[in-house]
Amino acid sequence: MRPYVLGVTGASAQPLAERALQLLLNRGRTVHLVLSRGAHEVFRAEQGLRIPVDPLTQQMFWREHLGVTHGELICHRWNDQSACIASGSFRSKAMVIVPCSMGTVGRINAGLASDLIERSADVHLKEGRPLLIVPREMPFSLIHLRNLTALAEAGASIAAPIPAWYTQPKSLDEMVTFMVVRIFDGLEEDLAPLDRWTGPLL
Prior knowledge:
The protein is an alpha/beta fold. The chain has seven helices and six strands, in the order E-H-E-H-H-E-E-H-H-E-H-E-H.
């Protein structure tokens, strides 16, 4: 199977990115991971995690932190626009940006590529490959909505991380897993068992 590109920006929902990476690797998938500069800051501010910038050191960090030995993980610096995923000739299954800040949404919509995440997103759009954006903002301004609409019109899928209560979650951890699994449903990737809606109990 072709690899996934996983972009993580500086929006406040890093546990979604961690769970997505963990579940993808546990499924034996290949993941090219890019943390924006802002994502490093949010990890440190909200979770006390200092993520190594060096790609090889970062790979070892994630393996240990998430407790995963499966799959293949390739980490990239946020400003390395010579990376393989910056080229249209590099073939991937899809790119997922989780969480995606509104600044990143706006720059992708404008066709800017100030870092590797934005460049890779631009590549996925121009090559007609799946690009799934998980925006983390509330409420959305009209500017946010117009940018998201424009990206949807350009071929991206928008999957806001909205929880559900019909699964009767017992913890925040269960809710995070639910949202991540639902996000990847859009790519026909069954990441983990899920209590799906089957209709009201009689």
